[in-house]
Write a structure and sequence with these properties.
This protein is an all-alpha fold. The protein has a domain at 51-145. Helices cover 63% and strands 0% of the residues. The protein is built from 5 helices and no strands. The chain is elongated and about 95 Å long.
Length: 148
């Protein structure tokens, strides 16, 4: 290092340290010391834990309905009895798109419902899962028996 740098280090480090006297803290009146704390807020209730598995089972049942309906129709042992779905079952892409859209719609309805009524949302999804399970079981029975 150069002589100037050494000189600056020696001068800066050799300066005497001056301590400042600590002044006592001002007295706080008792009225300020006893401020009541706000009551702890409860967190907003979240989605009921049962809904996610119900959503998943509903999506699986919708796909099972799609698959069993297509199987029964292609084997000739079944026919679509829902007059609103009948024009779409002959077009697999349209049929699958409608199934996906109806699944998304039911999940959306369940999500809207649980914010207002948590138990009602679970009952709603259990009812829709039960209805779809009944339809899928019926489709399997028709495809297996070969009856029309």
């Amino acid at each position: 290092m150069s002589r100037v740098a050494w000189f600056l280090c020696v001068v800066c480090l050799s300066a005497p340290a001056v301590a400042q006297e600590v002044a006592p803290a001002p007295a706080v009146p008792d009225s300020y010391a006893k401020v009541p704390s706000a009551a702890p807020r409860e967190p907003a209730p979240g989605r009921p834990p049962a809904l996610m598995p119900l959503y998943g089972s509903f999506a699986a049942l919708q796909f099972a309905d799609y698959a069993t309906t297509r199987r029964a129709l292609s084997s000739g042992s079944g026919r679509e009895v829902n007059p609103l779905m009948e024009p779409l079952v002959g077009h697999p892409a349209a049929f699958l798109t409608l199934k996906a859209a109806s699944t998304a719609g039911m999940i959306w309805a369940g999500e809207k419902l649980w914010r207002k009524n948590r138990v009602g949302a679970i009952v709603f999804m259990v009812a829709t899962d039960s209805a779809m399970a009944t339809i899928v079981a019926h489709n399997y029975a028709i495809a297996r028996s070969g009856r029309r």
